[in-house]
Each structure stands twice: as structure tokens, then as C-alpha cells.
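Ticket #4471: structure export looks truncated?
Reporter: QA, pipeline team
Priority: medium

Steps to reproduce: submit the single chain below to the structure queue and open the exported record.
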Amino acid sequence: MPLEVVVLAAGHGKRMRSRTPKVFHNVLDKPMLAHVIEVARQAQADRIHTVVRPQMLELARQLSADGINWVLQEEPKGTGHAVLQAMPDISQDSHVLVLNGDAPLIMHETVASILAKGSNSLVVVTAELQDPSGYGRIVRDHEGLVCGIVEDRDASFSQRKVREVNSGAIAASARVLQPLLDQLNCSNAQGEYYLTDIVGLAKQAGVKVQTVMAKDPEEVLGVNDRIQLAQAERILARRRAESLMKQGVTLKDPSRFDPRGKINAGIDCSIDVDVVLEGDVTLGEGVSIGPGCVLRDVEVGDRTVLREYSVIESAKIGSDCSIGPIARIRPGSVLEDEVSVGNFVEVKASKLGRGVRANHLAYIGDAELGSDVNVGAGAITCNFDGASKHRTVIGDNVFIGTNCTMVAPLSVGSGAFLAAGSTITTDVSGEVLAVGRARQREISRWTPPQRRKKT
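Actual output as written to the record:
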């Protein structure tokens, strides 16, 4: 039986106090709606229908969610009404799963448990919460069978004491679901068509109602304000941290780790506190990352050490390298094995050959350095003439002295030695000493400017 998923994402989210619709607020690396769509894809859904308001359509299309059928809910008439908007696009032979776009913590394993119950009954995901305030309560009869769901605002005093709550995830065949949806009415405190009312209707119609208890109560937590958004962020971060630790990664303090991207890490990696990983990050075996580092779309080779407060973006770092502290590797850079880039060194769109050493206070931009090049403190490549970028090409075993200024376009031959304090403006041959200093002079009888007296 085909599986079709309906994601409810049309809510206003007024408590977020934001011009951005609630479901497009990021949780870790992507909008919370994208997390829910990802779970639907993991369930191997044949089609995914996402219900949004017309004003959200432009943002929705920027989500890069290929194959999504965007369904418009013109008027905010409740969750039941939202599902009804999607039903004309759903085959009557399908198994339908409804998920909430503002509940990004539901796990694939729970969804699999729902689908395993089959399609001839109505299946509801529930959880037990210490504080069920704000959630619909599961109402059971004297035999313990589910006979309804009562929304928090409509619940009686005794019903509000119930700790078993509705997650919002519901599944049934389209043939079971459609007639139940057709019977919905808006006789409630909000004047809306509640999807949860189909549980009571199913009971009346003799449709079997089953429940799946979420393995972790956190899965049902919805996001309605910035506080809950931050809570969801930390829960997902903790899950990713635990997954990495199970793979053989040491985290000095998992609660102070921000894994905001897709991370592949080898065994025996060590990550200190306040590290942020974004985009696609690949770490080889034995990589060590110091506190405060930020990595975005980076590949790092085995045994490389990234020292504290270094920032690396869209770059490839080889094995046995040493980066930082306080170094910046900008997009387009490739560092081969055994490269050392020290404090306050910036590398941009450059290739550094094996064994290059730039240990402090240097800028290497739009350059290609051969192997075993030494870059002295204060050395820079002048790659921008105010209109265009130019490249500097440096051969193997070149020694670049302190405070050298290399004006591109420039080529320096292998084995050359650039004297400290030189400004190099023309190509340098191999195995030579290049000196580009102004002649030093001494001026006698020079009178320094007098300080102005305070009046």
C-alpha cells in the first residue's frame, strides 16, 4: 500500500513574535519543517503533502525540498480542515500519516512503529508528560481503550490531570480517514475543526483506535515560542552528540557542543567545549579540536590538531596538520599534510603544500605554495589591486622572511630566500636571495615635533 504523508505547517506561530513563520525557524542546521520532512523521507513515503498558508509559499519553495506537494490552506480553520485540503490529492488506496511541522523531535523509529500497526485502524502516537499543560489529553474508557482526545483548552478539571497526551501524529488508510474527516465540526472553544476529534468519531463508527507510546516523551514536544525552540535545539544537539560518542568520539562536555551539520567522524577524535560544526564536516581518525573552534563544510585529515578559537570554512585540511590557535582558513583553501598554520594567520583560496609553516601573523590569499615553504611573521600576499584578484605562485623550499610583502601577480622559484622587510614586485628566480628594501638613511640635526602644550 502506498504511503502518503501530510505535514501540517500552516500555523501562524504568534507566540514566536516573528515575521518568519514558525516552521521556518531553524533548529540546529535547518528549519524545523525540514526535520519533519526528513523523517517522512526516512519512512520511504511515496508522496509528501505539506499544508501551508499562501503567504508561506515563497519560503516553502526555498526549502529545496524536491518532490513536495505544497497544499494551500486559505483560511486558518484548524488541523482537521488542514488535512482535508490535502485529501483530494491523496489516493484512496494509500496509507496516510499525519505529522506536525512544528514537532521536529519525532524519531524515525516511532514513525516505523505507527506504520507497523497497519492501515485498517486509526493509530495515534501518545506520550506521558510530567507537565501535560497545553497538550490534548488521551481519554480512555473503563477498559482502557481510547475513546477520544480532548484539547487542553476544552478539557475538564479531571481531564487536565491526565498525563497521557496526544503527539499530533496520526495514521490510517485514506478509506478510513476520509469519512471521519467529513464528519468534523467546529463546536469548540476555538471554533476550529480539530483533527483530534476523529478519534471520538472513530470510536462511534466502530473503527479500532490504537496507540503507540513514544519511546522518549521529548518526541512529542512542539515548538510554539523561542523558549521551546531553544529546548528543541538542545535536545537534537544532545542526540547528535550521543550518536558521535557511540561512534568513538570524545566530547569534553556534550552539553556545550553544537553539531549543526552532517558530521562524519573517525574513531578517537576529541572535541572540546563550545565547538560549532556546520554543513558537511568530515573528520579523520584522531582529530583533536580545541575549544571555541567553528568548522563549516570542512574535511580534516587524520591526527590533525585544530587549536582553540580557529575558524575553518569550505576548506580541506590534510593529515598531521596543526592549525591555530586563532587561525582562519577561508573558502577554497587546501592544506596538504603536515602543514602548520599558527595564531593570527589567515589563508584564503590558497593551496599550501606539504610541510608549509606559517606560524604567526600572516596573510596568504589567492596563492599556491610548494612544499616546505616557511612564511615569516607579518608576511602577506597582496592579491587585490582594487579591481581584480591576482595569484602568487611560490615554489618548494622557499624562505619568506618576516614582514615580506609579495605583490601579485608574482612567481617565486624553488629554493629562493626573500629577505625580511622586502617588498617583492617582480618574479624571483630559484635559489637566489631577493631583497626589496629601501636604503636606510640617518638624518642628523633633526628636530622632532613638539608636543602641544595643554591650554
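Status: closed, not a bug. The export was complete when the record was re-opened. Leaving a note from the reviewer for reference: The radius of gyration is 31 Å.
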